[in-house]
Amino acid sequence: RRVLDALADRGADIRRLTPADGPADGADLDRDALADRIRRAAAEEPVHGVLSLLALDERAHPDHPAVPTGLLRTGVLVQALGDAGLDAPLWCATTGAVSTAASEPVGSAAQAQIWGLGRVVALEHPERWGGLLDLPATLDERAADRLAGVLGGHGDGHEDQLAIRTAGILARRIAHAESTPATGAPWRPRGTVLVTGGTGALGAHVARWLVDNGAEQVVLTSRRGPDAPGADQLTAELTEKGAQVTVVACDVTDRDAVAGLLTRIRDAHPHHPLTAVVHTAGAGQFAPLAETTPADVADVVAAKVAGAAHLDALLGDTELDAFVLFSSIAGVWGSG
Q1: Residue 264 DSSP SS3
Q2: Residue ranges per domain, the chain?
Q3: Which fold has domain 2-171?
Q4: What's the pTM value of the predicted model, to 2 decimals?
Q5: Average pLDDT rounded to a whole number, residues 295-323
Q6: Which of 3, 84, 119, 330 has the fewest CB atoms within 10 Å, i.e. is most exposed?
Q7: Burial class (CB within 10 angstroms; exposed 0-12, middle 13-18, buried 19+) of 111
Q8: In terms of Cα–Cα distance, which of 79, 76, 74, 87 is closest to 114?
C-alpha cells in the first residue's frame, strides 16, 4: 500500500489489479482471464507503464508447492500482457532479492528467483520490458522519490536491473572477482560422495572428477536410476578407476524419497560416511516463455530449488566437506 500511495502522491494515475480470487482454486494463474482484466483496466487509454508487486507473495502455491506464488503469477502476467496487446514497460519489484554490499545478505531466496525470470523476459520480450527493481524494506520519502523517478523514465533508460538503497539507485554489473590467495589444502573428495542427477551429462562429468581426485565411493541418483541411458557404461567406467559405484532411482523433489536415500547411504556405508553432496539434478525447459505453463515452471523449480532445500534440511548438522549446488547461467544473463 505504501508503494501505491507514494506513486499517487507524486502524480501517477494508478489502475490497480489484484490477483483473481485466491490461489487455492487456480484462478490466479488463468492467463486468459488476466488478459481480459488488463484490457478492461486499460479501458483503451494509453498505459505508460506496469508495476508488478506480485513477487512479494512468497507463499508456496497450493497447486505447485515447490514454487513461490509470486513467481508463477509473474510469469502469467508477462504472458497476459502480450495477449492483451499491452507493450507498456513492465517493472517487477522485489525486496531483499539482491545484495548490494557484503554487509547486506540476500533476504529472500524466493524473490531472488524473479531476477532470474526477469532476465529471460528481457531477452524474449524487450518490447514490453522495463526492468527489475529491488526496494528497501522501508520506503521513506527519499526512496519513494527515487522509485517514482525510475518508473517515470527519469533515469538511464539502458539500466534494467536496479536497487534502491540509502546510497541512491544502484545498477547491477558483472565484474571480475578479485583474485585471493588460496589458504589451506585444496578440497580432495573422500569417503562417500552423493551426486544428484548423477547419470546425466553434467552429473557424469562431476562423478568422473570426483573419482579421479580421490572419492572412494560415489552414489549417483536420477529419476530413472540404473535404467537411465548410459548408467551401465558410467558405472563400469568409474568402477574400473577403482571406485565403488551405486546408482539409485530417487526423485529429489520428493522429500520422503530423499530422506530414505540418505538413510540408506548411512546404513550401507558405515565405514565410509557421506562427506560431500553435489546437487546437479535439474529439469530443462526449452519452450519460449509465451508457451510455458505454470506446471512447466514448477517442474524446473522443483528439481533444482526444492531438491536443494530438501537436501539442506535433511542433512541438518551433518558435517560435510562440501555441499555444492549447480545452477544455470541463464539466471544471470537470461536465455531466449
Answers
A1: helix
A2: 2-171, 192-333
A3: Rossmann fold (3.40.50)
A4: 0.88
A5: 91
A6: 330
A7: buried
A8: 74
